TrEMBL record:
<dbReference type="GO" id="GO:0005737">
    <property type="term" value="C:cytoplasm"/>
</dbReference>
<dbReference type="GO" id="GO:0016316">
    <property type="term" value="F:phosphatidylinositol-3,4-bisphosphate 4-phosphatase activity"/>
</dbReference>
<keyword id="KW-0443">Lipid metabolism</keyword>
<protein>
    <submittedName>
        <fullName>Uncharacterized protein</fullName>
    </submittedName>
</protein>
<dbReference type="InterPro" id="IPR039034">
    <property type="entry name" value="INPP4"/>
</dbReference>
<keyword id="KW-0378">Hydrolase</keyword>
Length: 691
């Protein structure tokens, strides 16, 4: 973009600002059709803000009957009377980028506060004072308070009226925004074609990709998230393999065979800690502590949840500590509390007090947790038990970023596509899960390997979360700030309620709200100079393991999912399976085959790298042009020329300016030499700079 050119801005209602990028000089007569109608409606603005649009036109002319394309300016109200194809690039911020982390942090902070009160509250049963006096417990509780303070600081920052929803790549180390994803953008490609006099009524093809920086706690440089250690994948795997039996005891999340397999087993101590957090939060909830101020149904729901949680704890003891007499004695105490019907007859029997129900379970639970902590055997020397809560904090950082980006991706699909229009597709989502393919361009070298490990570990947890779509009366009721909520209806699970949608939409969905789970697939191919180093070392094996595991998941999903075009699916599946069996250097074609298979399966797309600014821009523009090619005929030179123009003048170039203040991709000449040819930006659009 020339420094002399000012973007044309159109306000469709504050705070949503839509900017149209200036054109470049072309041989074609400038044509000024209206901006895409798909972004000029209340439903679209409920989720999107600060949109940037870049329009291209390819027209047929009588002179030699030769087709050509141009990157053009547009203005509202003018008509076009010629055979043309309009290609719109749309990039927008997402309104949920602040509110989703807030809801998650409020959820986690409530549990940590309840845990602290649960341990510290009087009266004290016999033996509890000795546990409290232990240095390890004191240190543990101090780390709990530090994590609560970090979460509260992030909540207050996000709730400030002046706080933008966008977190730039230069804010990686900003602790006040540690739980927000970096450079989250909703990217869309819209193709309008055929000979129509009014652009707004042209048939449309739309393709969405969500772009975001790596989900990681590594950037925060904070002692509360173990930033000096390897990623969660390494920290979890070594400890977990020492323990017998299954590491996660959840219900089956999908009917797809193998869907519950995990890349890395979840640590038993962290699982126990989460159970105790849920128990403490439930014990100290208003429905239990002050049942006289709540309905009988609310109180009974909480009591039923307590039963389920205690049953899980008892099962843990029986499965893993059957040889420990002390813990078996604790199991007897827990069973006594669980099955003592006299203490469940009246709600008031759960009030805190001498010999109360919470007091009867507090010491056994803390003793069990401390034993788990003592058995911890991490791969690197760390300071326990304080580091366990810090590892939990790092998990929260990763999951907050991952869940936020995933919700943005899901809502974008619901609001702008026909995701829910076909009943067989909706039934598949309910039974098999919603396929979301996360594509990464990270290397397996140093800090980027840490990020990869955080992401891979988070994918296993993401599959356990239940999402619920609620139904309202009209699109005017959509309010992302008020309608997103997070709950824990059953032990060990998280349920996220998305903003309500109308019972009848223009896409044909007519029904009640429904729940589903995400079926995450994650593939990674490093493409930069650090990836070249890993190709010559054993580090690349980690990438191969990731792709083998998640590639298998994608193939398994393709056997169960409903699709429209079985021939397209069969071809895409065979192409991907063949590519997956190969191991070549910088095998970017594997990601492209996965994109095609995901499209055939009706899945959603997320692309990421370290900052989602440079490598991501190259990958997204290439993916967009592959779809343009499906609708517009190009010679090889024309196709490459438009790809270069999209990178030089399009929305992703604007994204670099938005992040760093400089409209240049951050590639040095040396880095350029390591990028695959189709991922290299055009001359004049890159320079060595901040990432």
């Amino acid at each position: 973009m020339s420094s002399k050119e000012e973007p044309l801005a159109y306000e469709y209602g504050k705070p949503n600002l839509c900017t149209l990028l200036p054109s470049v000089t072309t041989e074609c007569t400038p044509v000024r059709p209206a901006l895409p109608t798909c972004i000029n409606n209340q439903k679209w603005h409920a989720l999107h803000t600060n949109a940037v649009v870049h329009r291209y036109m390819r027209e047929s002319r009588e002179l030699g009957n030769q087709e050509r394309y141009a990157s053009v300016q547009t203005s509202v109200g003018q008509r076009v009377h010629r055979k043309a194809v309009f290609i719109d690039e749309i990039m927008a911020d997402c309104t949920v980028n602040s509110i989703v982390p807030v809801r998650l942090l409020q959820f986690w902070k409530s549990k940590l506060n309840a845990f602290y009160r649960f341990i510290q509250e009087e009266p004290t049963e016999p033996g509890m004072e000795n546990i409290r006096a232990e240095t390890s417990v004191t240190e543990f509780l101090s780390h709990v308070l530090a994590t609560v303070a970090l979460m509260e600081g992030n909540i207050q920052t996000a709730l400030r009226g002046s706080c933008p929803t966008f977190k730039s790549s230069t804010e990686k180390t900003n602790l006040d925004k540690a739980f927000q994803p970096i450079n989250l953008q909703l990217q869309s490609l819209v193709v309008l074609k055929e000979n129509f006099p009014v652009v707004e009524h042209m048939p449309q093809f739309r393709y969405n990709v969500t772009t975001v920086g790596a989900f990681t706690g590594y950037h925060s440089r904070n002692s509360t998230c173990l930033d000096s250690l390897p990623g969660l994948c390494t920290l979890w795997s070594t400890e977990a393999t020492r323990l017998p039996g299954p590491m996660v005891d959840y219900r089956r999340t999908s009917r797809v065979e193998g869907s519950d397999e995990q890349f890395v087993p979840y640590p038993a101590a962290l699982r126990m800690f989460k159970l105790i957090l849920d128990i403490a939060d439930t014990c100290l909830s208003p429905s239990v502590v002050n049942p006289c101020y709540n309905s009988v149904a609310q109180t009974e729901d909480r009591k039923a949840k307590l039963r389920r949680l205690l049953e899980q704890v008892i099962k843990e003891i029986d499965d893993r500590f059957h040889q420990s007499e002390e813990l078996q004695d604790f199991a007897v105490l827990l069973r006594s509390a669980l099955y003592d019907e006299s203490r469940w007859t009246h709600p008031w029997s759960l009030d805190p007090g001498p010999g109360s129900w919470p007091s009867r379970i507090r010491r056994p639970l803390m003793s069990l947790l401390l034993m788990d902590i003592q058995d911890w055997n991490p791969p690197y020397p760390v300071n326990f038990p304080g580091d366990m809560i810090r590892m939990y904090t790092r998990e929260c950082l990763v999951m907050s970023q991952m869940i936020t980006a995933t919700i943005a991706c899901i809502m974008n699909a619901i609001y702008t596509t026909d995701l829910l229009s076909k009943r067989n597709t909706l039934n598949s989502i309910k039974t098999n899960g919603l396929l979301v393919y996360y594509e990464s361009l990270l290397s397996c070298w140093e800090e980027e390997k840490v990020m990869l490990e955080d992401i891979v570990a988070g994918m296993d947890l993401l599959a356990r979360i239940k999402f619920t779509v609620c139904v309202g009366e009209s699109w005017e009721l959509v309010n992302t700030n008020q309608q997103i909520s997070v709950e824990s209806p059953t032990g060990g699970e998280m349920e996220i309620f998305l903003p309500r949608m109308p019972s009848t939409t223009k896409f044909g969905y007519n029904g009640e709200g429904f729940s589903f789970r995400v079926y995450p697939v994650f593939l990674n191919v490093g493409v930069n100079e650090k990836a070249s180093l890993t190709e010559r070392s054993n580090e690349i094996e980690f990438q191969h393991d990731i792709n083998k595991f998640h590639g298998k998941r994608l193939l398994q999903f393709s056997q169960y999912a409903a699709c429209i075009d079985s021939a397209m699916l069969s071809t895409a599946r065979a192409d991907f399976a063949r590519e997956l069996s190969m191991h070549t250097q910088k095998q970017f074609s594997l990601l492209q085959r996965a994109e095609k298979l995901t499209e055939a399966l009706g899945g959603l797309r997320v692309t990421m790298c370290k900052s989602a600014k440079d490598r991501t821009a190259m990958a997204v523009t290439l993916e967009q042009m592959s779809h343009v090619q499906d609708h517009v005929e190009f010679t090889e030179s024309e196709w490459k020329a438009m790809l270069d123009d999209m990178r030089k003048n399009g929305t992703r170039r604007e994204n670099t300016r938005k992040n760093t203040g400089q409209a240049f991709y951050a590639f040095s000449p040396e880095q350029m030499s390591h990028l695959p040819y189709l991922l290299q930006p055009p001359p004049g659009s890159y320079s060595k700079g901040e990432t």
